[in-house]
# Entry
Amino acid sequence: MRILVTNDDGVYAMGLWALVRALSEVGEVVVVAPDREQSAVGTSVTLHQPLRAREIKPLVKGIKSYSVEGTPADSVILALRGLLDDKVDLVASGINEGSNLGNDVLISGTVGAALQGYLNGIPSIALSVAALEDIHFDAAAKLAVVMARIIEAKALPREILFNINLPNLPLSQIQAVEITQLGRRSYGDVIKEGHDGKRKYYWIVRGKPDWESEEGTDIWALLNDRISITPLHSNLTSTSALSALKGLSQAIFQDLGLKS
Ligand code: MN
# Structure
């Protein structure tokens, strides 16, 4: 099994190498990851400037590793279409420092990288631990191995994009594994104004998140010291708005001054 490991915290992040060390048990691991922290860049792809990749000395011996001047999604596209000739069986993104729950998946670089694997038809998982310091990577690394083996055994539907979050606990203290839906979590973003001596600037500061901890969601799982695995897909169509809008399509057409 050939496994591409990437992240959004940068190629030298501890979480990435914890993941590399664990997944080396399962197959051949190759690292292609951004050269610096790229958290919250989401699915961003660089089209207006060239990408540069450099082979680096790995932090785990014998692992072929590249540092990319680009986003997490860039790293995966470059790996699959350029550096590794598409011969990848699994894309593993993480282990991210900080959870990616609910609406976070829409801006998460960790998920953004996994999404590129998925869009290229490769089983892909994003792994995050819910803490920004004193992080326990062990449980997430072990879980990655378990998931890789399940995926290798082809025990699941073909299209795989899993968003996995873990509470920041030692493995022995984790209560359960939950298969979840995305919850809702919104941030009261605050704009801080300042002046750099020449110009005024604005800084978006994320406020404390507002949780909706409905049972069965990823947020609920984490609040209860459980692992959350959320299967995602890329179809964002709102079925409820779809039917409401369908009833309006004729009126919209007529409001354009057109006649059928
Ligand atoms: Mn990150």
Remarks:
- The first strand starts at residue 2 and ends at 6.
- Residues 8-9, 39, 96-98, 109-110 surround manganese (II) ion (CB under 6 Å).
